[in-house]
Design brief:
By secondary structure, the chain is of the alpha/beta class. The protein folds into two domains: 148 residues, no CATH class; 141 residues, Rossmann fold (3-Layer(aba) Sandwich). It is built from nine helices and 14 strands. Helix 6 links the parallel strand 4 and strand 5. The radius of gyration is 20 Å and the shape is globular. 43% of the residues are buried.
Length: 338
């Protein structure tokens, strides 16, 4: 099959998720990327893995996420329409994710959100993303911008440092009973809670992680307790995404994430990157993102967590030696229940 015809066939199957059998599609995308991604092909060769001998997800080698910092990762030949980049830390190399088509990213991001929350257009979307707005290449800003454009409410928009204006709009949305999503980076939501505590019951408050030296580091549970108290809400929602992924996962409270249709998490041994762990055991996370069809769908991340039989997962922290990341979640106690 010609590469482009093959790709279009796979994209059609991705669009049918979750009705399309995930594992069968993942294996077909693995074969496609093993053939048409030169970096991944060399990676498999160095591991002495023959793609034709891989017949289950458990046998697929996952590419270390650090490769996004040092290599141009592409499956097939195409010119990038845009590039997402991580903020990283001062002096550290940034990850770069080449995107073949922004329309595909927008559609997939909407599908991930709407799988759990319903149509984006039905929400007033308020994005509190300082630091991310002040640099280029943020996939989070790109996604939030699309959600704002999709919204049917004129109040939707970005907010940088004008928290007073944001507080006024939140009060207006609360008074009018508008379905509202407040999407914010963790340190900015914390500051908003200190400066403008108010009753926001009925409004979805969603943190995206991201302290990275901005505030004293605390656990997600501590942050959520602060936000719940200040805004008088029962739960804080969370979004899990990263530069290297085109899909997202969402938590409707309690820090338990559920992946979008094209995403799946697996846990691996920290000391043996090729050995997977049973459900419920703490390990490093491997992520399968089938939406990454044009780059690499099989990524060994630096995040530590647990994966459960229903597909949900927790994020418990990061490897001690891994770089701090702009969308990184808060420090957590990995030892609890490990």
């Amino acid at each position: 099959m010609e590469p482009e015809i093959h790709r279009q066939s796979l994209i059609s199957r991705i669009a049918r998720l979750p009705e399309e059998p995930f594992e069968a599609l993942a294996l077909d995308i693995f074969q496609y990327q093993a053939e048409y991604n030169p970096l991944y092909r060399d990676f498999l060769r160095l591991l002495s893995v023959s793609a034709r001998d891989v017949h289950s997800i458990d046998a697929i080698p996952f590419l270390p996420i650090q490769f996004f910092k040092t290599f141009r990762i592409q499956t097939g030949r195409w010119a990038p329409a845009l590039t997402f980049s991580s903020s990283g830390t001062t002096g550290a190399a940034a990850s770069r994710h080449l995107v073949r088509g922004p329309a595909f990213y927008r559609l997939n991001a909407r599908r991930c959100f709407e799988y759990f929350y319903g149509p984006v257009r039905d929400y007033c979307v308020l994005a509190l993303l300082p630091a991310y707005l002040e640099r280029s290449g943020s996939s989070l800003v790109f996604m939030a911008g699309d959600f704002i454009k999709q919204s049917r409410y004129p109040q939707s928009g970005f907010f940088l440092h004008d928290t007073e204006a944001l507080a006024e709009i939140l009060a207006e949305c609360k008074k009018k009973g508008l379905p509202t999503l407040l999407l914010g980076v963790s340190f900015a939501l914390w500051s908003l809670a200190e400066q403008h505590p108010m009753n926001l019951s009925g409004i979805i408050i969603m943190e995206t992680g991201g302290m990275k030296g901005r505030r004293r580091e605390i656990t997600r549970e501590e942050l959520h307790a602060i936000l719940k108290s200040a805004f008088e809400v029962e739960c804080i929602h969370s979004e899990y995404g990263m530069t290297e992924l085109l899909s997202q996962a969402y938590s409707t409270g309690g820090g338990l994430f559920r992946p979008g249709p094209a995403l799946r998490a697996l846990a691996r041994e920290i000391t043996d990157p090729l050995a997977l762990l049973p459900y419920g055991k703490t390990g490093a996370l491997n992520l399968i993102d089938l939406a990454n069809i044009d780059t690499i769908s099989f990524i060994a991340t630096d995040d530590l967590g647990r994966v459960y039989a229903d597909g949900s997962f927790e994020i418990l922290g990061r490897h001690d030696a891994s770089d701090a990341r702009g969308c990184n979640l808060l420090v957590a106690d990995v030892e609890r229940g490990a």
